[in-house]
Amino acid sequence: MSIEGEDYDKLTKEEREARDMADRAREAAEQAALPYIWRQELGEVDVVVPVPKGTRGKDLTVIIQKKKLSVGLKGKEPIMGGELSKEIKVEESTWTIEDQEEVHIHLEKLNKQQWWENVLTHHPKIDTTKIQPENSKLSDLDGETRGMVEKMMFDNQQKQMGKPTSDEIKKMETLRKFQEAHPELDFSNAKIS
Which residues form a coiled coil (predicted)? Predict the structure, then answer.
């Protein structure tokens, strides 16, 4: 078990790195022992389930539901089955058989802003805080999300330089316009909050 919070903070940098390496190694061993391989991006999870060579689609029983996944050969115990870590969009999730020896399952996450700790809730978890997402380019994001990210980046830079954030700039601009429109009012003691 990994030590959380305060105890971890007391460790030296070297001890932390050793602990992290041990955790990564344990995690890798646990994941390697699963009857499938999986990878994820923020919006999707891909699972590969090895099956006996020569398996065809009609030999399989694959169940994909909002919170459940099961894959197996007809008439046998499922190779994998259980409750999904998080909900998925069933209508956008698919499965195919590749080279008659692998079942490829593509799951579309319902919440596309959340990393999964595991595919099935009863399987070993990964530490999602250590996930290194592939750098998604700003241009890949939809307009609204891109605008939000750019605003956050701008505000962050402004804060680091001790300058006003975009919201503060907007407030000052609004006050300035109001002052111009009402020269008769005295704003000398006004405080912006």
Answer: none
Cα(89)–Cα(66) distance, integer angstroms = 6
DSSP 35: S
Q: Domain ranges for the chain, please list them.
A: 34-131, 135-193
Q: What is the dihedral of CA 49, 50, 54, 55, to 10 degrees?
A: -30
pLDDT band at 45 (very low <50, low <70, confident <90, very high): very high
Which residue in this structure is represented by tokens 């300035």?
176
pLDDT tens for residues 58-71? 999 999 999 999 99
| Helix H or strand E encompassing 82 | strand 80-83
> CB of 45 within 8 A of CB of 38?
yes
Helix ranges (DSSP H) in the chain: 5-10, 13-32, 143-160, 166-181
Residue 191 φ then ψ, to 5°: -115, 135
Among candidate residues 135, 121, 126, 88, the one with its CA nearest the CA of residue 107: 88
Tens of pLDDT along 65-115?
A: 999 999 999 999 999 999 999 999 999 999 999 999 999 999 999 999 889
Cα distance between residue 167 and residue 26, in whole Å:
46
Distance between CA atoms of 106 and 96, rounded to whole angstroms? 9
| Token pair listed for 151 | 């605003």
